[in-house]
Amino acid sequence: MRRYTASRSRRESTVHRRTSTAGDVQVSMLPDLSEMRTNEETAWEEIMQIKAMPIPMSQKKEMKAKILNEPNLRLQGYEQFKWRRRKMWGQFESRLRESLHKVELWKGALKHIEGYYGTGVVTFFLFLKWLFVLNLVMFLFIFLFITLPTILLDLDKNTYCSESNSTSCCFEKYFNETLPQNNIVLDLVQGTGILERTVLFYGFYSSEVLSYMAADVTMYYNLPLAYISAKGFKERLVEGEGQFYQYCNLIFGGWDFCIQEEKAANMKHKAIYSEIKAILETEKLEEERQSRTRNEWYKIVFSRVVVNIIVVAILGACACGIYFVFNYSTAQLETFQTNSTEITTSESFQQLLYEFLPSMTIVGLNIVVPFLFKYLIAFEKYSPIIEIRFTLIRTVFLRLASLIVLYASLLSKLSCDIENDNLSCIKCDSVPTCWETFVGQQIFKLLLTDFGTHIVITFVINFIRSLLAKHIDNKFIKFIGDQTFDLPKHALDIVYTQTLCWFGMFYAPLLSLMATIIFLLLFYIKKFACLVNCTPSPIIYRASRSNSMFMVVLLVSYVFAILPIAYSVSELTPVEVITAGFAIPVFIVLLLLLYYYSAVNSANRHMVVVLKNQLVLEGHDKQFLLDRLSLFIKQENQKRLRAEQLREGIEILNLVSKSTSYICGSSDF
Amino acid sequence: MGQGKSQFSEDELQDYQDLTYFTKKEVLYAHQKFKALAPEKVGHNKNAKLPMSKLLQYPELSVNPFGERICKIFSSSQDDMMSVFSQMAPKSVKAEHAFRIFDFDGDDMLGASDLKQVISKLTGENKLTESEMNWLIQNILEEADLDDDGALSFAEFEHIIDRSSDFLSTFRIRL
């Protein structure tokens, strides 16, 4: 409330400022300066305050000169030192900002995109950049604290291999067994051979380092989570408040002042128009919904239930498909391994195909199934916003579920083999030595396939589509070729890549490096997709809302990525027990933290509603009181008027009576 | 940069750095852009006043439906304009200027007629019908007009801007 009045009084002062002439302005601006300013520091602060005044530059300059010309007290001793330091710090800050600004990554590209597509799409690219930096930082940490010590401590590896069933022994054997035999390109793609023995994978690290690593990696997992959860919820909070000002936000924050392209501006006009229409439409739908008959209601509920069952069935089918494909391909690989002593090129190609079959299936399903979802949701008759949200949630589920199925099938295979042999590292038939490395390889492959698909889809398929749409004037081809930048889909793409990275980071610590490189390249791929392939979208993507959406999706996928790892670490501990004891409590604490944040969030929201209502009431009260006051004043005036009139009347009467009596008296006489 | 530097003395640059939200380099860069609009005019006199038609050639302003309003508001002090739109300017300063831009009739209140103009500028060629427009304005006032006087005062406008999550990111022109 105090704030409110403060800003109001400021307003009044600006009103006053504006109505007065230019010469008066300075006088009215500088009423109390002489008494306030006592030393250099306050003078400087005042100059800083001039910044915020809405007056022309020339006046600002005059004011600054005036302040500087007046005699200042010099600060003494420590005060002087403090003030100097403060000023220096300020200068240093601005200089630092300037140089940082100069080296800012992708500045030109971002501005370019902003000019074409507005701030909503730019948030996506900023998010991409943020993920890039996040991975870089994680990589640096992991490299410094895990990989580097391992390389440096490389010498005393052999000393630990006295007992046969420890992991330290495992990689000893492992190194001897996995001899490089295929050609290098295949190895690079599959993550086998030479690469398998590098620092990229878990198998390289000795058990000692691993015990540190477990603790460290959990820390690195916590690092982003804490950030994401805090940021995500903060933005949801802001967004929640924004809901109260839906219309004002649209009107006053609607135009994107960054837009500089004629075409984009036209698109923006259209987008705002359709947004207004959409709000109108939703309002109407809302009314319609309230007046829906019971019969119609049943119908819609029925169709929703059916669609949901179908969706679940599709998800189940996908899961089964992935499981079978995985089993099939591993079975095929086994036959290859048992049969072959000499590998011909065609066979090795086949082998490569089988190696990649599971990941290709997953990526393929990720592309095809969302179209099905999009088709199905039309039957459910949701409002457009909810429609987008539901499709997104379902797609997220699909992607994460497919990952988990892959993981589960990996584990089921591994655990059964381990049980059979009772030893974790002896190679029986086809069980990969060091199952952690094997899992790491799978994820490595998946990441690579996913990345490859991005390249192919963007540069080949979509590019050809957009070329067709641009150069051939045909309705059908336009229908196929025209693409808009589908923000949720692209966001999901990069979140998926990040999830894979988190998922595999435990098994292949340097996957973060790979993710960093992938994100670096993805920026250019997505920029190409955005600027070359697509036309501006008729849907408004709000900067704030889309950002919070990214964060929420990232959070969900993060939890999904961490769950199986927490499980496997606790259940399938290789040798060391430290990890299990460590991971579970940490996870519980994190969950509690999440709960706490959401509780605070809802409480704050409620508070905002209450306060806003109070504000409205307050306004009404004021209005009412003012009305009463003016009424009262009016009545008072009337009363006084009447009293005066009455008095006058009485006086006149008196006069009249006097005069009549006088007249009468005189006549009597 | 060398050419730009010759037009400003060190003191002037210091003034600009102290009084706007820019650093010295950014001031020079902004001036370069300003110069690019009319090279021969600004080359002679760095404080040259350009006609609105010239200024509206600035890419961000040319497509902005409020371009003319912005020019009018800042006409007496256009060297200040880019600073207000910079990322460093605080919300309150931006709100102050935004209010003036939206206040078409200059009565220090955003009344129904102001809102109507703002909306019609925003939608451009696509026109809303009369009833839709009225309905929209009514909704805006319902939302934000806390004292029920049928217009938005600056305090109410600032209140909205405080809550508006998009305003800061959209009311901005990158140098």
From TrEMBL, chain A:
Disordered as annotated region, ranges: 1-21
GO MF, one example: mechanosensitive monoatomic ion channel activity
Coiled-coil annotated residue ranges, if any: none
Pfam families reported for this sequence: TMC (PF07810)
Bilayer topology term: Multi-pass membrane protein
Keywords: Membrane, Transmembrane, Transmembrane helix
Domain TMC: 434-544
Transmembrane segments: 138-155, 301-326, 356-379, 391-410, 506-525, 546-566, 578-597
Main location group: membrane
A cellular component annotation (GO) from this entry: plasma membrane
Subcellular location: Membrane
Family label: Belongs to the TMC family.
PANTHER family to which the protein is assigned, alphabetical: TMC DOMAIN-CONTAINING PROTEIN (PTHR23302:SF24), TRANSMEMBRANE CHANNEL-RELATED (PTHR23302)
Name of the protein described by the UniProt record: TMC domain-containing protein
Organism the protein comes from: Aromia moschata
UniProtKB/TrEMBL annotation, chain B:
InterPro entries: CIBP (IPR051433), EF-hand-dom_pair (IPR011992), EF_Hand_1_Ca_BS (IPR018247), EF_hand_dom (IPR002048)
GO molecular function: calcium ion binding; magnesium ion binding
UniProt cross-references to SMART domains, sorted A to Z: EFh (SM00054)
One Pfam family linked to the record: EF-hand_7
Taxonomy, superkingdom: Eukaryota
Keywords for the protein's UniProt record, in alphabetical order: Calcium, Magnesium, Metal-binding, Repeat
Residues of the EF-hand domain: 90-125, 137-167
CDD domains found in the cross-reference section: EFh
The protein, known as: EF-hand domain-containing protein
Organism annotation: Aromia moschata
Classification lineage: Eukaryota, Metazoa, Ecdysozoa, Arthropoda, Hexapoda
